[in-house]
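Task card 7
Instruction: Convert sequence to structure tokens.
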Amino acid sequence: MAATPASGHATESKTTSAPRVTMRQEKNYQVEVDNFSNQAFDEVALAFTRNSIPVTQILHQFNVPASSVIIFDLGPCSDIKQYAVSGLVSGERQFTTGDVDADPVGCDDIITIRNTAAPEMQRKAR
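Output:
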């Protein structure tokens, strides 16, 4: 691409550059649900609250087969207050994590469902 000076403008140019500013975009909070059980779910629901909005929001993933992994993206990490994950079959809750306080440092949690009574919750090592 070439630039041609317009009429009435100086033909000399001096190159200056602005100081480089690097902005790191905030990481989104993610909750991974690993269904390592032999149970398929009609729905896995994640209810969460934000610091900026006092209303509970709910995300859904329908038809979750056994031995599958799903990931919920909740938005900017610093804005997530807490969440809970539940699995449903025919409208009946099969498991729930209960309320989990968000981790403002790691921003990613793993919920593992096995053929046991309670789901396991893990935080990735930092």
